[in-house]
Amino acid sequence: MTITSDVSYGNDNELLALLKGYSALIPPLHLKFPVQCSFTEVHAFLLHHVLLDPHLEQYPPSGRYQHSFWKWTIEHLERMDKDEEKATHSQLHIKDGEIDTRIYDRYLSLMSGSIGPPPDSYMTYYWKPSSLLVSDNRNSHETITLLESRTTIESGTTGLRTWCASFVLASYLFANAETIRDQTVLELGCGSGFLGIIVATIQQKFNERHQSHRQPLPAVLLTDVNAGVLSRCRDNVQLRCNQSSNHPNITFSTLDWFDALSLPHSENAVTAFLSKASVGIVIGADIVFDPILVPPLVATLRLALSFESTRMVVVALTVRNEQTLAHFVTEAVKELYVEEVPHTFTSATFFDLDTAGVDAGLDVKILKFTLRNSAS
User: Helix or strand or coil: residue 251?
Assistant: First the structure.
């Protein structure tokens, strides 16, 4: 059974921001409690749309995070309740609010938290679809849910969590949905599956929105070199709460960029994969983080663009090391046309996410690659 992901909370942005922060495990320190709302409004929202929300009950944030969130929430609710009680007594009104025992019960049930590295957790991200994708988007939000690592590196890979560059590239894809609506999309370094879900959802929404021109959905090809990452990606893409679980043409494949360096190029494993794929657009996020990966990645991009079906490559890269990025661009321009795409996208553009995480303050560049003789 597919869980409906359309959520409507009217125009109360403070309450919706709180829900988004909780669902994405934003530390309470970086959340803003909706003090402009009344105790009754906030309490009812927290009870019914956070604590008892069916989706968040099935795909909950980690117990460790919930403990810190509900501790912070109870402190604010108790303070708000006391302030309102003083105000109402001074006006000879009767106090009408108290914290539901189910909120206290949830907090108390999480008191014996585990010690050690933070556990994996479900993360739910909310985004507002444009009119290109839905006919009525006034109060609706879509959700994307993933089981993610909460550590920077786990099992020798950084691919088990979603990084800022992925949110930036997702925002670019939302703003340019027509670019991928009818194209086979190949993702290099698919990680936990966030961008794969985005691409699949865009294709599905676009097809539903324009029913008079409905066509079979193009393929979404998700690749990574790490088997554990691919397994996590598959599990997330196929979660029933994600629309991508209904996409009929998603594949998960191991792809090692170093194979692109093998001679002759016409017979290596990357060429063999691409020759069967009919890729229209290649995407990737945060795939340039080690200088040793630059030669195989550039070789992979060159091979992909050598096929007539492949229009372009679009990648989003967080600038953690300017020398590594410069090295990548220098090597790429030897064989490809490279264009930096001006943008103002951040993780807050479509997702309203706190930017105080691991990549806080770092620039994210979007680069577009084409063959020199096909650049436009």
Answer: strand
* Residue spans of the chain under pLDDT 50: 1-11, 90-95, 375-376
Q: How far apart are CA 147 and CA 352, in angstroms?
A: 20
d(C-alpha 17, C-alpha 22), whole Å: 9
Can you name the residues that pair with 340 across neighbouring β-strands?
A: 367
pLDDT per position as a tens digit, 208-222 = 887 656 678 999 999
Sheet holding 312-318, edge to edge: 250-254, 220-224, 185-188, 281-285, 312-318, 364-371, 336-341
CA atoms of 255 and 159, how far apart (whole Å): 14
C-alpha–C-alpha distance, residues 83 and 196, integer Å? 47
Instruction: Show the tokens assigned to 105.
Output: 């019960």
Cβ-based burial of 256 (10 A; exposed 0-12, middle 13-18, buried ≥19): middle
Per-residue model confidence as pLDDT tens digits over 336-350 = 999 999 999 888 788
Supply the Cα-derived Rg of the chain in whole angstroms.
23
